Each structure stands twice: as structure tokens, then as C-alpha cells.
Write the C-alpha cells for this entry.
Amino acid sequence: MAINDNRKETIRAKPAEKFNFFHDERVRSVFYQILTALVVGWVAWFLISNTSGNLEKRGLSFGLDFLDVEAPFDPDFKLISFAVGEDTYSRIFLIGILNTLYVSFLAIVGTTFLGFFVGIMRLSKNWLVSNVALAYVEVIRNIPLLIQIIFWYSVIYAVLPRIKQSLDLSMGAELVMLNIRGLYVPWPVAGDLLWMTFVALAVAAIAAYIYRNWARKRQDKTGENIPTFLPIIAMLIIFPGLVFLTTGSPMTWDVPKIDGFNFTGGASLPRAFIALLAALIFYHSAYLAEAVRAGVQSVNKGQTEAALAIGLRQNQVLKKIVIPQAMPAIVPPMISLWMDVVKNSSLATAIGFADLVAVYMQTSLNTAGHAVEIVGMTMGFYMFVSLVISFFLNIYNKRVQLVER
Amino acid sequence: MEYVRTKDVPTRKPPMNESSLLGWLKINLFDTLFSSVLTVLVLTAIFFAVKALWIWGVSDGVWVAETRRECFKISLDGACWAGVFAWLDNIFYGRYPRDELWRVNLGGVLLVIWMLPLWLPRVRGKILVGLSVVALYPFLAGYLFSGGEKGIFMQVMIAAAIVGLAANIANAVTGYFNHGSLSNFIIRKIGKSEAHEKQQRNILLAILLFALAVAFIWQMSWTEENVTWTKWGGLFLTFVISGIGIAAALPGGIFLALGRRSKLPVVRVLSTAFIELFRSVPLITVLFMATTMFPLFVPESFQLNKLVQVIIAVCLFYACYLAETVRAGLQAIPKGQYEGAHTIGLGYWGTMGLIIMPQALKHMIPNIVGTFINLLKSTTLVSVIGLFDILNILRAISKDTPWIGLHKEPLVFGAILFFIICFAMSKYSRHLEAKLATGHRN
């Protein structure tokens, strides 16, 4: 009893916390938040009211009606058809998006290959090889991308021959022609039954996937190592190939031919496109090489040694021990680098390739006005791409984290 | 029976790779057959590449000529550097009036003088020096570069900048000759070192005010011819944009990073949205936005010129990138540091300013400088929206009548210039990080 009383006494003796309105943390936090919201809200209101006022004063309207107006110009490069005076700005927007995605996709593929190649060179035990890779990385990274793009653009102009003396890259077959205007390649024209080949390819892919999973499970169970790489490649080539041949090769090639001062037929990649692609690949591969090097070096040396100790061969160590552990460190920077490729492809504007920024934010903005809408749509596209990419990155990170020790 | 050795064991040779060039070669270049083949292949490739570059750039290069035609007469395949040299003034200063070039040079020299004390180990008050560079130098340089009429605010800031510069030099001198900081030195010289702290402060304040008044009166008679921003160009303009960008984006980035890690939901959401918005779009779209939409954003009576629009865009954009860099640094600080700071009774700003930021920033130096390098490289984008920065000048050479069609050489020159600057920056940042490392990195 006495003990209990004593405790009560102590509790009572403790000074009651004084509530001070100005020094209470909760009150302060609410106050600061309201203050921030008010300031940001006021800035937003200021900008919006100014913008609408200015638009009104200049007799401009706000709205997306201009998308249905015919665009008075023809983009230099397009993957879908465009008719001047018939097609509208919405189609221009679409052409721009497709061009940006097209060049970005090719650049991402090229960057990934070259970046891994240079990264592996960096890791070589050969002093000369690793230092050549280092020099490449340092030189490329310390020169602005825009200078590199314009450099390739003008080098192509200075080095490549005129149309009549086009370089033949297909050894005299006159299929792949390179000249000052760009690269001309034959383009496949689909026949009637080509869809069957695609179906066959899809079937082969599904079969390959099932086979790989079966092989993995089997190895987990029995330890038997079943080859997957070559059988899968064979499956993907042989089955669709057979279907293609049995349906009577339903595909012809549209070959580029000189017609007066230009080539007709086939597919062409203009000079600006090639310069942009080359510069994007070189520039980002240097960054990717560093990411690859850092990722591989982040794998503890003991892992390699232990793997060798239990009798794995050198290439097995790489394939089964080092790379699986290095990938979680390589993939996130690599994916954000892919995002950079998409963003940096907008530098096409400087050399006149018709990417989204050049064709929509520049030319369309100059002809149609509507700055707010056009800037908003263009930025919205890049934000959308970035959201999609970071969505996949998050999924990957979650999967990797589960696997991690 | 003898178990004790009477003769010395002959000393063994040191391992091969440490002793001789041959050993090093064997291990690093010719370890295996594959490695040897690689070495030979790479050496041949390097040989031919260097040879081709040497012939193009140096042995066949033309250094003195009047026109590109003359270049061709001397050497058809060599580089025509003469064109670059003829444009050197333009490359560095743009269309800045040639009689006024000393102003740009003086601005550069003043910046070097102002920042030099940061590298002198004995000088005190380096934080103040750094802050004064960011807060005062831009006003002095701004007037030096642009000239013209001065508003009253500008006049005050110029006076302050002059006093700041003078005090900085004096402080560096006293510090360098081991007399301590400038304020201590003054107090000692006038024999008040025994006086009360408050009295000392008042004396210093009086001296400061007096100096400000003198500087203010002097600067009233200082006028320079007006050079509008449209005449700025070349490397000078590139440095102006990136300099202001760096000076403004770092504090902006720090505040955004703190906002993103804040416990207050409204602050956190707004900062995150702002950062992610700018990070997900290309800089070029932000620049287009600046030139097309900023005029709509502000009242018509208050129109900004293109240079200011561009600088604002660059600052906003790179503040967001720096915010992410700083945030990564903040995340690397262990929780114990926050808790320790709370235990000794520091509030939020005390914790951040005295405990967390100094450690985080120190670790992040290479990454922050990396972002600065990106900023410097990205300022070339302003050429796309029509400012005559170094890249646009380099491209303009090929349109100049005597040098028509001269594309490659100016670009190579620009590339070398950027490489030197950026490479030096990144190497120095590594060195700085190593120098500041305190050895108990977590």
C-alpha cells in the first residue's frame, strides 16, 4: 500500500507539461504546412491569372481545338504517312512521338550493347585494354552531347559521297547505299500469308519459355544441367523459318534505286538521324560502361573465389555467380540511363531531325501558337514515358529485393 | 651435427611484376595468349588512330592563313586551325565590344582573386569568403559586364561588393602572414584587444559602415558604357549562365532535398512533385517553356529578357537534379547522427546545418561536382533557342564568308576546351573529397 502511495506521489510531483501555443510542435507543423500551401497556392494563382490575362489581351484562346486544324508543313522524317493540307496537328504530334520513340529505341539497344562491351573492357586484366576503355569513357563523358551530335552531323556531311557516288555497303549488290543524305536500305514488304510466320514465332516463343522453365525446375530437383541457350535459339529460328518457307516465302524486298537526284523505294534514314543515333549511343554507352564496371566490382571477390573453389569453370562463375549478383546493381542505373536516352533524343532539334520537340514544340508552336497547350502536351509525353519506365523499375527492384540474401 | 646455419641464405629475387618493366609487361599485357593478341590489336589500332589524327591535326594542319581557300592551297586534307584562331576573340567573348573586353577579363580576374583565399590554408573565415562570392560578386560582375544606369539597390550592392572584396583581400593577407583574421588584426592594432566584446563589435561595425559609405560615394562616380546582353556571347556567356546556375541551384537543391525528406506532408508532397516534374522532362523543353511561356506568366509591364528566362530555367532544372544528389547524400547519414544532434538539444535547422549537411555534402562532393559538370555541358543547349553561347559561335564560323564550310575544326576545338574544363573539375572534386575525408565514413 505504502509503495503505491509513494508512486502516486511521484507522479503528482512531476510538473505538468505546460501547453505553449507557439512552442508546440504540432501547432508549428500545421502552421508551416498551411504557410507553404498558401505561398505555393498564391504563386500558382499569380501565374495562372497572369497567363489567362495575357492570353486574353493578345486575343488568344486556350484549348485543344488547334489539334483539328490542318498543319501547313511536312515533317522530314515520318514512320506513318502525312499529307500536307489534309492531316492535322494531332497527326504531327503522333509523328513526333513515333520518331522520338523510334530513335530512342534504336539508341537504347545500341547503348546497351556498346555500354556492356566497354564496361567489360574496363574490367579487363589487360592494362592496355582497360585504359583504352577508361580513355573512351572520360573523353566521351566530358564533352557536351550537343557538340558530339553536331560533330557527327558535320563529319557525315564532310566524309560521305554525293548521291551519284553512293557508297555500297552490300559489296556491289547495290542494296544498302550510304551517301550524304543518309542510309538507304531495302525494306520488307509483307505478303498475304506472312501473318502465319508471326504466329509460328509466337508459338515458338511460348514453347521456348515453357522449355526453359522446365529445364530450370529439373535442375533444381536433380542437379542435372540441361542446355537451354542453343535449343531455344534453334526453336525460335527453325519453326518460324519452316512455316515461312512452306507458305511460299510471302515477303518481298523493296530495294532503293537512284531516281534522278534521289533514291526511291526502300527505307531511308536521313543524315540527321544517323548522326543523332551515333552520338546518343556513344555518349550513353560511356555512362553505362561505368555503371557496369561499378556493378561488377560491387560483387564481393570472395564470391568468385568460393565459386572457383567448389569447382565451377571460369565462364560458369561469370554466368551463375557474378552476373546474377551484379545485375541488381547495374539494372537501376541502366534503366534511368534509358530514360536519359529518351530525354536527350530531344537534342535532335539542333540538327533538324523531326523528333517530338523539333516537330511539335518548335515548328507547330511557331505555326499554330498555343504555347501553353503545346508545351504542356510535350512535357506530358516525357513525363508519361518516365512514369512508365519508373513503374517497371519499381517492379524490377521489388523482385530483386525478394531474391536478395 | 650442426643445426645452426653458418652461411646466409641467398636473397631471393623480388616477385617479377614488382621488379622490372618486363615483369610488369608480362603480367599486365601478355598474361595469356588471348591477352597478348588483344594487346597487339589494340596497339595497332591506337597507332593508326593517333597517326591519322596527328597527320590531320598537326603535321598537315594549317595554322596561319587568311581564308579557307588558302588553307586548301597549303594542305587539302589537313585541319584548318587558322579559321579557329581568326575567331578566337569571338569564341571567348562573343560580340562584346572589342574596346571593352578588359571588363570581362577584369571580372574573371576579380573572381579568381575573390576565391583564391579558399585555397590558402592559413586564411580564416572561409565560409564567409564562400558566401560573399555567391552573394556579392554577382552584383559587382553584373555591373562590370553590363554597365549603364545603376538603380539605388544596385548601387548599395556594388558598394557592399567592393567592401567585401577589399575585406576579403585584407583578410587573406593578414591570414597568410599569420596575423589571424582581419577583425582580430584590426582590434589588436588599435589596442582594444582587452576591451569588452560588445565594444569590439561596435568598433568593427563602425569601420564597416565607414568603408561602405566611402565605397558608396566612390561608386557614384563609376560608370561604364552599357553593353546589352545581346552582345554577350561565347565562352563568356556560357560561364555567366553556368556560374549563376551553379550558385543558385546548389542552395535551391539543398532546400528541395530537405523539403522532400521533411516530416510535414504538404512540404514533402510539393517538393517531390516539383523535383519529379523537372527531372522527367528534357532540359530543352524547359528552355522552350521559359522562352514561350514565361512572357505569359508575368504581367506585361514586367517582361524578362531571354537571357534571364534561360538562366531561371537552368536554375530550376538543375536545382531539382541537385536535390536528388543531396538527398542521396542525406540518406547515407546514419540515424545515430540525427539522434545525437537531438540529444545535445539542437533543433531542426541546427541539426541540419551543423551536423547533417556538413557530413552529407562532404561525401557528395564528387556527385555534386558531377551535376555541375552536367550543368556546364548542358548550357550548350541555349544555342538551340538562339543565344550566342560558345557552341553557336563555333557553328557560326562555318557561315562566315572567308571560312565558309569550316565545320569540324571549330567543333573539335570546342570539344577540347570543354574536355579540359570538365575533366579538371571532376579530377579536382575527387582530390577534394579525399582531402576532406575524415576517415570514419559509415
Remarks:
- Chain B has a mean pLDDT of 88.
- The radius of gyration of chain B is 29 Å.
- Residues 97-226 of chain B form one domain.
- Chain B touches chain A through 54 residues (CB under 8 Å).
